[in-house]
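re the bet — no i am not wrong, look at it urself. input seq straight from the record:
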Amino acid sequence: MQPFNIVLIEPEIPPNTGNIARLCAATGARLHLVGKLGFSTDDRYLRRAGLDYWEHVDLRYWDCLDDLKSGFPGERFFYLSTKAGRSYLDVSFKPGDFIIFGKETKGLPEELLRANPDTSITIPMPAGKVRSLNLSTSAGIVLYEALRQVGCLRGRCSEL
């Protein structure tokens, strides 16, 4: 089965990326880092957050999102944003899907969301007291829903 893909566009906070790397190691998801990073991948906070799991992370680097997309023609890309109207719970995920997150301080560019309205999704905030969740928390929520949908959490998925 193809792995799911977590994409971080210009991440800024090392521990978030480290935590997401650990999430990817735990689930078999591939991690893509796109654009200018707000830290060095040798950063001690990044490494500390990922602990000793880095060797198990399928990590790829891309100069820009267009390069990534041209490298995977025909695949599906979902864009997470607080500005999207459709819940991630309304998506039927498939192995190989790309789940894309923007930088912590700004999220994804508005023009990217406008260009992809059918695949822009959000995590509902039922209490309405906060604007968004932490990046690594958001990645975990959506990735585990995708894994649940394809049966990987009930033993029907030998390996991503």
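see?? The first helix runs from residue 14 to 27. told u. also The domain at 5-149 is CATH 3.40.1280.10 (Alpha/beta knot). so pay up
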